[in-house]
Amino acid sequence: MSAMGHIRPFAEDDIPQVAALHVAAFRRPGPLDLEGYRRYFTDTFVQHPFGSGALPSLVYEEEGRILGFLGLVGRRVSLDGQRFDALVSSQFVVDPRCAAGLVALRLAKAYLSGPQDLSIADEANDVSRRIWEGLGGATALLLSMYWTRALRPAQLAVGHLRARPRAAAIAALARPFAKVTDALVGSGRARYFRPAVPAAPGEDLTGDTVVAHAAAVCGRGAVRVDYDARGVQWLLQRAARGKAGRRLLKAVLRRGEKVLGWYIGRLGDDGVVETLQLAATPASVGDVLDQLFHRAWRHGAVAVTGRLEPRFLQALSDRYCVFHRRGPWVLFHSTRPRLVEAFHAGEACLSRLDGEWSLRFLPSLN
């Protein structure tokens, strides 16, 4: 790599090169679906409803060749009544045939040196974490934890085996016995894996509800996203799209006119519900969890999982959730001491829907 390489803003004309770079970096099989990539990059990084942000998406270019890409999408966040500009990064890809470490370092440095108040990467791997921390960023350890509530534990275990090529044959043999085991466990007196019938019924969740009540359920002392109707609708539409066999589960819970909270999750073809957003107060989250777990169980889910918000720790523990770290790190960078303090303390209503999950490249969604 020569000294002629430079970083510049990403433009729509760059999509063919960035698409080829993405295929090379992730070793995607099959021919290049340029039209699918064009729709994805345009919708996600050019025409998204969150404005231009404090910094546009970036490319690293050398002699006309794009060797690196870093997608950036703006968010407006609030804390203690004060608003801040935030950026969420995604699709951090570098040409594996070049000096990848140096290109990645320069792109990350350009990102963290931008004018935004807060920088976030919430699905980072170990390599990204080392680069990030080397540039002065930090890891939100509490927010990098996950919880899982088993609903059908035997089938959940078989699913883990099926994901391992060497154990796939064993999983196929064990699957019928797992269903019988779960049926017996769920019918016993101690129904630890069968969720309680919720006390509060769920109603269909709309974007207007999220916009109107997000501040109340998050609380003043937590970092939260400032939603508007267009942005929430965009996020919900992306959550609803997916492979056949997957289903969006979302509901709001009320007591009279009062909103207790809501949940948004996706039931995958592995039988696990991924919780994308869990919005409630510590006093009301138990009702929201009971509704989510019971609905997931009725739809045949084997488990429900989600990223930890420490303020919900007691309610999750009371409902037999297991806490673990499954891979991705939540990284942040800010020169604002109060924002740094909040992330280290886990005081952030930053759901997976608000972060990189909604910016993923999923060919089946396009």
Name the descriptors.
366 residues; alpha+beta; nine-stranded mixed β-sheet; seven-stranded mixed β-sheet; 11 helices; 35% helix; globular
Would you spell out the secondary-structure blueprint of this structure?
Blueprint: E1 6-9, H1 15-26, H2 34-46, E2 58-62, E3 65-79, E4 82-94, H3 100-112, E5 118-124, H4 126-134, E6 138-139, E7 146-150, H5 153-162, H6 168-187, E8 202-203, H7 207-218, E9 223-225, H8 229-240, E10 247-255, E11 258-267, E12 272-280, H9 285-298, E13 303-307, H10 313-318, E14 322-324, E15 329-334, H11 337-344, E16 348-349
Parallel strand pairs: 4-5, 9-16, 12-13
Antiparallel strand pairs: 1-2, 2-3, 3-4, 3-9, 5-15, 6-15, 7-13, 7-14, 8-10, 10-11, 11-12
Helix pairs in contact: 1-2, 5-6, 7-8
Question: How is this structure best described in words?
Answer:
The chain has helices at residues 15-26, 34-46, 100-112, 126-134, 153-162, 168-187, 207-218, 229-240, 285-298, 313-318, 337-344; strands at residues 6-9, 58-62, 65-79, 82-94, 118-124, 138-139, 146-150, 202-203, 223-225, 247-255, 258-267, 272-280, 303-307, 322-324, 329-334, 348-349. The chain is of the alpha+beta class and 366 residues long. Strands 1, 2, 3, 4, 5, 6, 9, 15 and 16 form a 9-stranded mixed beta sheet that branches. Helix 1 (15-26) crosses helix 2, helix 5 runs antiparallel to helix 6 and helix 7 packs across helix 8 (229-240). It is globular and about 70 Å long.
